[in-house]
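Reviewers of the previous submission asked for a worked example of the structure-prediction workflow described in the proposal, so we include one complete record here. The input consisted solely of the amino acid sequence. No template or homolog information was supplied to the procedure at any stage.
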Amino acid sequence: MKAIYKGEIIAESNETIVIEGNHYFPPNSLKKGYLKESSTHSTCPWKGLASYYTIEVDGTANKDAAWFYPNPSDKAKEIKDHVAFWKGVEITQ
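From that input alone, the workflow returned the following C-alpha cells.
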C-alpha cells in the first residue's frame, strides 16, 4: 500500500493494518521528511488519544492530514505509532 500526496509517496508498506476502513502504516514505512508534528489531538472512544501530523510537499501544507496513536488503549495496541491518512491523501496499492 502507498499513501500519496501531491504526487509524492509519503508512506509505503506491505504490512498496513486496516481498522474502520483506514490503512495504518507502520512507523518504518513513513518518509518522515514530509511529516511535521501538529499540536492537534482528538479522542477515539475505543482507541484513545490521537496525535496528528501536517503533511508538507513542495511548500504545500495539508494540516492534520495524518494521525496516529502514541499510547493506544489495549484494544488498539497493534496500531501503536502506526499512521493513517485522510484529507486528500490517496491510499493505493
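Strands lie at 2-5, 8-12, 17-19, 22-24, 35-44, 48-57, 60-68, 83-85, 90-92. We consider this example representative of the routine output the project will generate in years two and three.
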